[in-house]
Amino acid sequence: MFPARPIERFTSPVGRFLHMESAGGLVLFLFTVIALVLANSPLSTSFLEFWRIPLGFSAGGFEFSHSLRHWINDGLMALFFFLVGLEVKREMVHGELRTLKSATLPILGAIGGMAIPAAIYLALQFKGEAAHGWGMVMATDIAFVVGCMSLVGKNVPKGLKIFLLTLAIADDIGAILVIAVGYTSNVSLLPLFAACGLAALIVLLIRLGVRSKVVFILMGVAVWVGFHESGVHATLAGVLLGLLTPASPWIEKSRLTPFFDKLRELSTGGDDYSAVVLRNTEQATKWARSPLDRAVEALHPWVSFVIMPLFALANAGVAFNLQMLASPVTVAIVAGLCLGKPLGIALFSMIGVKLGIAALPNGVTWSMIWAGGMLAGIGFTMSLFIASLGLSGPVLETAKAGILLASTIAAACGVAALFWTTRRQVVVLNSAKH
Questions:
Q1: Stretch (H or E) spanning 64
Q2: Nearest CA to 123 among 323, 322, 324, 331?
Q3: What residues contact 404, with CB distance under 8 A and at least 6 apart?
Q4: pTM score of the predicted model
Q5: Quick one: which of 59, 229, 304, 408 could link to 191 by a disulfide (CB 3.0–4.6 Å)?
Q6: pLDDT per residue over 294-316, tens digit each?
Q7: Sign of the torsion formed by the C-alpha atoms of 36, 38, 42 and 43
Q8: What's the angle, vertex CA 348, arms to CA 344 and CA 352, rounded to 5?
Q9: What span, in angstroms and rounded, lies between the C-alpha atoms of 428 and 411?
């Protein structure tokens, strides 16, 4: 046991909050509200202009300067996408995506939850001014979905949680492909080849046993710069680096025994080289956890409580008016996220079960799948991100308003439906017992 520290009276509650599943969603919601209030207040002009402040540097004839919003969306959000890449890698190696049998249902649901909303949106906006924003209705915001599920409580079956979380991961993969294919143009091959060469060098260094975080951080930044200068969206560098991160530990847990034996000798006064023993044991226990797990643990608080709230502040500030809410763009977004998402997820899941290639998780009913599909209509973070790639000007502001409205409707309807279906299931099970 570690000795008690007075400061823990203050840090322990903060630590518990940071590790709550719903905490990230709560903070994200708070900063979204702040952005909306400021954007619709007398401070609106100053608030919106603040994110256009240019930041950068120049050296000789080379200039690298962008707006503050650009640095957040292309720079800090690369860390968000790095975390997405890590989560995808973990699911593929250790989680629900490691076998086709367990992954089939959420993957089918994710495909339906992307295809149907995009089809509905394009049907309503095919010749409209926002047709290029079709990708924004395909996304699911995992932070808000987890937060909404926590509001329902312990009645949510574990199988449904796993289904929705795996679906969201598969959805993220789809969104990454959409960004790469649908929102990348004018590619400069030289920087792209340089970035890919550096990525290959990272793989080589890992195989050679290089363990320096500084080396990999510097190379990761260089890969990001290569993607940024190539015209391929820079956040995709984060995904690539996440997928390259080793998911296996550098030292097997079975090889820790000699280190612990040395430590035991030290505790009984049998070893004079205490500093060496302590340092070696610390290094061995650190390497017994995979780089992927350590990176997720280190990044998660920063992404959830700094990067995503900053993204919300910079992008969710919309000066609302009634024309926005009645716009055909808003109608198309609401239809795509609030109707297309649950319809696509449930329909493709049903097809998979009917064909015998997938099965419902234990304790999960079709009404719960529909309710979960409604929750998946909370696009928010990824929807705002894709909207900023495909649209601009007044159309972008209208699309943001539509995303916020659709996500609010999806959250309210999803929580209500999930509460009703899970509570009903508990009543049925209790009745069966008696």
A1: strand 62-67
A2: 331
A3: 32, 36, 316, 318, 380
A4: 0.81
A5: 229
A6: 999 899 889 888 999 999 999 98
A7: negative
A8: 170
A9: 25
Nearest to 179 by CA among 237, 245, 116: 237
Nearest Cα residue to 113 out of 313, 344, 326, 333 = 344
Element (H, E) at 62: strand 62-67
What tokens were used for 404?
Answer: 């916020």
Residue 43 has φ and ψ, to the nearest 5°, of: -85, 5
Assigned token pair, 355: 């064909």
Token pair belonging to 250: 């550098």
User: In this structure, are residues 148 and 378 in contact, taking their beta carbons and an 8 Å threshold?
Assistant: yes
Q: Are 21 and 146 contacting, i.e. CB atoms less than 8 angstroms apart? A: yes
Please name each of the domains of the chain with its CATH number: 21-68+100-176+307-433 (1.20.1530.10)
Output the six-digit token pair for 224.
């990001």
Joined tokens for residue 43: 């401070």
pLDDT digits (tens, 9 = 90+) for 159-212: 888 888 888 888 888 888 888 888 876 788 899 999 999 999 999 999 998 988
